[in-house]
Amino acid sequence: MDKVLTGKSPSLKGTIRVPGDKSISHRAIMLGAIAEGTTRVQNFLMGEDCLSTIDCFRKLGVSIDITEDSVTVLGRGFLGLKEPSEILYTGNSGTTTRLILGVLAAAPFHTILTGDSSIAKRPMKRVTGPLRQMGADIDGREDGNLTPLSIRGGHTKGIEYHSPVASAQVKSAILLAGLHSNGTTIVTEPARSRDHTERMLKAFGGDVTVNELAVSVEGGQTLTATSIEVPGDISSAAFFLVAGAIVQDSEIRLEKVGLNETRTGIIDVLKSMGASLSISNIREVNFEPVGDLTISTSQLVATEVGGENISRLIDEIPIIALLATQANGVTVIKDAEELKVKETNRIDTVVSELKKLGANIKATEDGMIITGPTSLKGDVEVSSFGDHRIGMMLSIASCICNGQIVIKDADAISVSYPSFFAHLEQLQTVKSV
Ligand code: SPQ
């Protein structure tokens, strides 16, 4: 579906609640499915990626009910999972594909899983490699690197694994396998990745030990069902945080947003660029910090983004690139090679599409360099290339473009933020008083 956006917004004003966190929603279904008892999940993200996770666990024999205000998972323990008679389809979701491999590695049956054309290009060896070391029998294209993958699990043993990448998907897959393996499993990362799995394991009564960059679990644990309230997704909030900073005469309040410090790199970047941003009402829900954010139109200066902060904002780099086009000076984004293996190669897609809008941006081997401020032009056709975050970044860009823009494949946005355009329109229609 193509989306036509009319260009420059006179202002963006109002309060919104972004939908539930995608990473946390996936994990609530997965841990609920392997726990004993009934888990109720509120503010679950009804985006396509999380619905893929539900669909896969239903095929593994887990009963999951969706109502208007919650999702209920009838967990029957890890041993309650059943060999699926159908191929598991993980859609566009890297998180579903990689984390479910961890669960299946320890499950004593055979499964075939596959995803869409983007998933078919994303590297799985980073997960299938260590899971094979634990004893899972996995095969697939390029020696188990690419989907479709076939996996026969069971009889796994704990490992001590030093991950070459800071990736929550790698860490979580190994920990999920470790929960049902013999002995201890330890994963050490080069930098800290998002830690929702560790926090949620605690909410389900699991025993997990975190020692700086090392996380360990003992095998043979039983998880106990619980109630999970999913915080708003800071990666979705990031689009409106940037919109509030760069669109003239704006003030946006975002309520109940997750503020886990492994995800708040975007807040640090906005502050270092001089954005007028305040945080209030901070509290903790299911071991996750949550708060309200208010941002208004700001004079911005360039910054440098890199090093250990990259894993704290990796999914926000497309919208940070747009932010940098409006900041005074040269913004450098480096150490972000991981962008190349997301839903698209996000170095290429961000640079090509922002260039079409007139931005002064160039790709580097591990990131991009953006010089601002630049006035963005309209009457241009751009594409999300099927990547939800590129689609949302371009939609926010349209609010400062000098004319109409057409976004091809804009429906990809429903992967993580089905109500995105409704929220954008709501902010555009609130008038100044
Ligand atoms: O699930 P998927 O497709 O990998 O989604 C993305 C996204 O932009 O929404 C990445 F493309 O988020 C990942 C994130 O980049 C979600 C995630 C998680 O929930 O564990 C972790 C990050 O990936 P990684 O590879 O660094 O572990």
What's the structural blueprint in terms of helices and strands?
Blueprint: E1 3-5, E2 13-16, H1 22-34, E3 36-42, H2 48-59, E4 63-66, E5 70-76, E6 88-89, H3 94-105, E7 110-114, H4 125-133, E8 137-140, H5 141-144, E9 146-152, E10 160-162, H6 168-178, E11 184-188, H7 196-203, E12 208-211, E13 214-218, E14 227-229, H8 234-246, E15 251-258, H9 265-272, E16 276-285, E17 288-296, E18 304-305, H10 317-325, E19 329-333, H11 346-356, E20 360-364, E21 367-372, E22 376-377, E23 380-383, H12 388-398, E24 401-402, E25 405-408, H13 420-429
Parallel strand pairs: 2-15, 3-14, 6-7, 10-11, 18-19, 22-24, 23-25
Antiparallel strand pairs: 1-25, 3-5, 4-5, 7-9, 8-9, 11-13, 12-13, 15-17, 16-17, 19-21, 20-21
The structure holds ligand SPQ.
Ligand SPQ binds at residues 22-23, 49, 93-95, 167-169, 172, 193-194, 314-315, 338, 342-343, 389, 416.
Low-confidence stretches: none
* Record field, number of beta strands: 25
Quote the CATH topology of the largest domain. Answer: UDP-n-acetylglucosamine1-carboxyvinyl-transferase, Chain
| Helical residue percent band | 25-40%
What is the residue-averaged pLDDT?
97
- How many separate helices? 13
Order of the strands making up the biggest sheet: 2-15-17-16
Tell me the Rg in angstroms: 21 Å
Distinct ligands: ligand SPQ
- Tally of discrete structural domains: 2
Which structural category fits the helices and strands? alpha/beta
Shape: globular
CATH superfamily of the largest domain: Enolpyruvate transferase domain
